[in-house]
Hints:
The protein is an all-alpha fold. It has 11 helices and 2 strands; from the N terminus they run H-H-H-E-H-H-H-E-H-H-H-H-H. The chain has helices at residues 3-53, 55-63, 72-83, 107-136, 142-147, 151-180, 193-210, 213-222, 228-233, 235-249, 255-295, and strands at 99-101, 190-192. Strands 1-2 form a two-stranded parallel ribbon. Helix 4 runs parallel beside helix 7 (193-210) and helix 6 (151-180) runs antiparallel to helix 7.
Amino acid sequence: MSDTKKRDLIGAIKEKGKTLEAEMSFFDHIDVLRKHLLRALAVVLVLTAGAFYFTDFIFNTIIMGPKNPNFWTYRMMCKLVERFPSIGSDFCITKIDAKIINTEMAGQFTLQLNSCVMVGIILGIPYLLFEIWLFVKPALHDNERKSASGFVAFASFLFFLGIMFGYYLICPLSINFLTNFTVSPEIENTFTIDSYLSSVMTLTIGSGVIFQLPVIIYILSKLGVMTPAFMRSSRRYSTVLILIVAAVVTPTADPYTMLIVAAPLFLLYELSIIISANIERKKNKELYGVSTIRKN
């Protein structure tokens, strides 16, 4: 065998070794991620099992709450009308005329199971974020770890803030409109319990996800994908988009409801701009600092 062929063979073996090492490293990371997710799943299962103990409270008080005219949101709206009559009497909700039925033999058992699972997932979000942080943390530099040390607390706070916003504002306003809306008086509004539960969960959890906007902007800004200049220049388009989302989520006739829903979204967008600008300022400071040191 010639020297050239020997060198080619040795080079091929080295390259194959590097490929195998990279593949093992990838699968090792997958295995570590699997362990983190399994621990998070175990916590969700424990919380779900605990939720079964409070089934009556979860279903009758929490899930069916937005359908009750005595719900906190409706009472506060009526107090606003009493204090500011110019708002209009339609803003005060005293009746929600809708009938909810079960059409499946195992429907109520499935309802109880799904309700407890969703409660377990919602309560387990902070621990899931913590496990994600433990998985990502070893790959970060010291300065990145310090800057992202409050990730779990901040993301969890925004998620539960969004949950409360969706449950106490978006959910009752949407349910009131959809249950009382009729095309013809000949058609009676009768909803299945699956449809009602799906609407409550979608509006509530969806709000929690939307409130993660600052976290998403933080990550994109760190990656250099998002900049504060772009967000400021797109403010007019984001304003229109937020108003459209508010109108779709709470399809009521009065403008007050839409503005109540849109206001937190505007604040989230402005907060995201501040976060992105802060990250860009730190990057420029580090870059110019390194450049000055090199020149000296």
